[in-house]
C-alpha cells in the first residue's frame, strides 16, 4: 500500500512538520516549472499548518492556490473554505499567491464546476486532504447520493448533494474534487489530529471499499503515495 505515516508528539511539531513538507515540494516545483499548483482542504484541522506555511520563503507570486472542495456558499461567507484559506494562508509571504475561488456571486453551481474543471486542466502538484469523523474526504461522504458516480467521474470536479449525510452538517450542496482530479498530483498529504482519527484511520487503511469510507480514495487512486501527517 503506497502510504507513508509521519507521526508527531505535539501539535507544534505536526504543524511545522507538515508545513515544511508542503513548502519543500512547492520549492522543488518552482525550480522546475514556471508555476506551482497547490490544492487545499478546508476545516479547522489544517488552519495552523496553513498559517505556518504562509511564512515559507517561496516565490509565492508563482504559486496557484485552489480548493479541494467548497460548500455552495459565497467566497466571503464565514463558513466557506475560501474564507478559511484567505484568512489562514494568504497572509505574510503567501499573500502574493494567486487564489482561485470556486464560487462567485452570480455564478450557478454548474458554472462553478465548469470553472473549476477549466482551472484543473493545469494539473495540481500538491494536494492536501483531510478526513472527517465519518471517513469522508473532500466533499465525498459515505452513502452520499450518486457517490459511485462521483468516484467514477472522469471530470476533476463534480457537484454533489450530501442530503442525508450527517458529516456534511447543514451544507448539503457542494463541489468536490474527484479521484480523477487527485490522480495527476505528484504529492498527496492527509492531515489528521487526535486519537479518534487515528483509530478511524486504521479502519480506513484496512479496507478497499471507497463507498464505505471515501477517504480511501486518498491511497486507492493510482498515482503518488499518500503521506499521512498525524499528531495526538
TrEMBL record:
Keywords: Hydrolase. The keyword Glycoprotein does not apply. Signal peptide: none annotated. Gene3D superfamilies: 3.40.50.1360. One of its GO terms (molecular function) is 6-phosphogluconolactonase activity. Transmembrane segments: none annotated. It catalyses: 6-phospho-D-glucono-1,5-lactone + H2O = 6-phospho-D-gluconate + H(+). Pfam families: Glucosamine_iso. It is an enzyme of class 3 (hydrolase). The keyword Lipid metabolism does not apply. InterPro entries: 6-phosphogluconolactonase_DevB, 6PGL, Glc/Gal-6P_isomerase, NagB/RpiA_transferase-like. Residues 19-218 form the Glucosamine/galactosamine-6-phosphate isomerase domain. Pathway: Carbohydrate degradation; pentose phosphate pathway; D-ribulose 5-phosphate from D-glucose 6-phosphate (oxidative stage): step 2/3. Hydrolysis of 6-phosphogluconolactone to 6-phosphogluconate. NCBIfam families: pgl. Belongs to the glucosamine/galactosamine-6-phosphate isomerase family. 6-phosphogluconolactonase subfamily. This is 6-phosphogluconolactonase. It comes from Luteimonas composti. The gene is pgl.
Amino acid at each position: 500500500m503506497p502510504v507513508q505515516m509521519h507521526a508527531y508528539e505535539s501539535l507544534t511539531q505536526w504543524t511545522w512538520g507538515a508545513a515544511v513538507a508542503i513548502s519543500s515540494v512547492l520549492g522543488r516545483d518552482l525550480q522546475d516549472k514556471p508555476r506551482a499548483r497547490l490544492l487545499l482542504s478546508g476545516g479547522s484541522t489544517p488552519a495552523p499548518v496553513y498559517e505556518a506555511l504562509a511564512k515559507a520563503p517561496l516565490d509565492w507570486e508563482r504559486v496557484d492556490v485552489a480548493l479541494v472542495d467548497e460548500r455552495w456558499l459565497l467566497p466571503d461567507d464565514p463558513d466557506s473554505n475560501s474564507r478559511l484559506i484567505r484568512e489562514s494562508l494568504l497572509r505574510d509571504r503567501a499573500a502574493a499567491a494567486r487564489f482561485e475561488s470556486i464560487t462567485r456571486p452570480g455564478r450557478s453551481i454548474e458554472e462553478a464546476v465548469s470553472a473549476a474543471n477549466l482551472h484543473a486542466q493545469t494539473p495540481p502538484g500538491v494536494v492536501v486532504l483531510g478526513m472527517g469523523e465519518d471517513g469522508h474526504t473532500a466533499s465525498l461522504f459515505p452513502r452520499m447520493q450518486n457517490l459511485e458516480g462521483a468516484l467514477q467521474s472522469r471530470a476533476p470536479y463534480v457537484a454533489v448533494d450530501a442530503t442525508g449525510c450527517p458529516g456534511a452538517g447543514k451544507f448539503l450542496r457542494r463541489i468536490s474534487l474527484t479521484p480523477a482530479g487527485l490522480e495527476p498530483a505528484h504529492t498527496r498529504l492527509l492531515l489528521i489530529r487526535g486519537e479518534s482519527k487515528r483509530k478511524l484511520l486504521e479502519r480506513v487503511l484496512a479496507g478497499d471499499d471507497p463507498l464505505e469510507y471515501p477517504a480511501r480514495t486518498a491511497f486507492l487512486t493510482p498515482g503518488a503515495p499518500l503521506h499521512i501527517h498525524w499528531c495526538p
